[in-house]
């Protein structure tokens, strides 16, 4: 029973991981940010939000309506400034939004001491509002980015796929053996039936009767 449960869990895990990888790659190729039910995952790559957010932190961000974003909220948006153009930036909203001609404008800035004000952004640039830092996931992610972590990650994948391949191999062998046995049984049964029919035919043949 335990073996069957482990097998099912391994298959489910592999399917889920495969779907996530395919979806993430497809989204990146199309220039989109992968999301699950409106939630996004981002990783901090600069010190502009220290000490609130550290380099390497993994963030859970959720899409929000324009009127739900207020002063002191931390948002992630697509930058349209200089070398950061098209890249994701996570900064704090430092003032109440301004509405001009039906469009929402937000003023943001990093938390780092001395950080300058960003150029005002519009709602259509915002990908979502910070829900929380995923501390454990951040630590796991950082670990798997190290040589040791990469080696262990590859080992886990090999073990998962390897166990499935071995299981499939032996299952296939088992089915082959069952098929062979079934084929032999059918052949033997047909042979016995043919022999019985021949003996009956021989008994009923008048030419075989002695005078």
Number of domains: 2
Could you tell me the number of beta strands? 10
CATH fold group of the largest domain: Umud Fragment, subunit A
Reported CATH architecture of the largest domain: Ribbon
Describe the largest sheet: 7 strands, antiparallel
The first-to-last residue Cα distance is 70 Å
Helix content: 40-55%
> Overall 3D geometry?
elongated
Which percent range describes the beta-strand content? 15-25%
Element order: H for helix, E for strand: HEEEEEEEEEEHH
Pfam family, one: Peptidase_S24
EC number: 3.4.21.89
Membrane topology: Single-pass type II membrane protein
GO molecular function, one term: signal peptidase activity
Task: Describe the structure in your own words.
45% of the residues lie in helices and 20% in strands. By secondary structure, it is of the alpha+beta class. The chain has 2 domains: 33-134, Umud Fragment, subunit A (Ribbon); 158-203. The strands form 2 sheets. Strands 1-2-3-10-4-5-8 form a 7-stranded antiparallel sheet. A 3-stranded antiparallel sheet has the order 6-7-9, with no helix packed on it. The mean pLDDT is 77.
């Amino acid at each position: 029973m335990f073996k069957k449960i482990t097998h099912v869990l391994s298959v489910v895990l592999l399917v889920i991981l495969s779907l996530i990888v395919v979806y993430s790659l497809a989204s990146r190729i199309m220039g989109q940010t992968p999301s699950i039910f409106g939630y996004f995952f981002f990783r901090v790559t600069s010190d502009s939000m220290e000490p609130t957010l550290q380099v390497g932190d993994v963030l859970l961000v959720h899409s929000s309506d324009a009127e739900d974003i207020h002063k002191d909220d931390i948002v992630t948006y697509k930058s349209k400034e200089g070398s950061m153009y098209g890249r994701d930036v996570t900064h704090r909203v430092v003032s109440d939004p301004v509405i001009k001609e039906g469009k929402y404008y937000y003023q943001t800035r990093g938390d780092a001491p001395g950080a300058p004000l960003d150029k005002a952004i519009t709602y259509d640039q915002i990908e979502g509002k910070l829900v929380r830092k995923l501390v454990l996931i951040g630590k796991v992610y950082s670990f798997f980015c190290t040589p040791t972590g990469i080696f262990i990650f590859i080992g886990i994948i090999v073990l998962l796929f390897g166990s499935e391949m071995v299981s499939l191999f032996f299952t296939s062998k088992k089915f082959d053996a069952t098929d062979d046995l079934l084929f032999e049984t059918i052949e033997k049964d047909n042979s016995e039936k043919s022999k019985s029919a021949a003996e009956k035919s021989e008994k009923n043949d008048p030419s075989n009767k002695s005078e």
